[in-house]
Task: structure prediction
Amino acid sequence: MRITGEPFGSVDGTDVTRWTLQRDAVRVRVLTYGGIVQSVETPDRDGVPGGVVLGFPDLEGYLKRPEPYFGALVGRYANRIAGGSFTLDGTTYRLARNGGPNCLHGGERGFDKRVWDAEEVEGGVRLSRVSPDGEEGFPGRLEVSATYTLDADGGLRIAYRAETDAPTVVALTNHSYWNLGGDAHELRIAAGRYTPTDATGVPTGKVAEVAGTELDFRTGGPLTIPLDHNFVLDGGGPAAAAELYAPLTGRTVTVETTEPGLQVYTSEELGGIALETQHFPDSPNRPEFPSTVLRPGDVYASTTVFRFGTR
Result:
């Protein structure tokens, strides 16, 4: 296992570091800017290494084009909050409406646009920061960290942790776009249900069955339709939520998570597939969904692992 850090430019006078984690044939690069997974390199079925996530070669690319959220650590709240507001304990909080009429991925300057502190840990690097009370409209001073490590088998593990001094809402994810080689991918998702949305991408509150629809990926199949859907995962606790496969290269990435949902977003323009482990969109306004409320004395903890293979 090899861990190194190197200068990678600066943002508003704050230095950015690029951390490289390498175990055997798997190499991952993580930036302290935005917690971005800049690159992941894995071998194909012939043992030839290659990149499998989308990103830019330099910091300037991320600063000039932040909207795709390439590889970013998204928060305080991943995905959408309807109308850019929510009510908690009788108080209504107003957020930025940066995704049409809704708050998207934490607001105008979410976690993806901040420089994080970093420290080397066993097997990887821990990024941390303090999000002050009122940042982007969210209540509570939030101490938050994301630890990126490579498991013994080379799987990329991201462990999130947060604590607050006042009631707030938290939902974090990684927004990497995967391309395992070639234009064609196949996807399997361990989800028998999904959350239908309105025209702005916000869940209606209903939970629908995937059976008999184009969203039934339980046994796997080619990605032939555009997706921007939250799937309700079948598993409880750490479980294999999905597997993406590229027939051309034989590469696979299997997603394991403690989260209840998986947002799958495909972009033909970008040429990648986002597999965002998450709590459901708009949960702060949907008491019927799993809660995203964090209170003082409690700990937000979430883990996702991306495991790489071939077939």
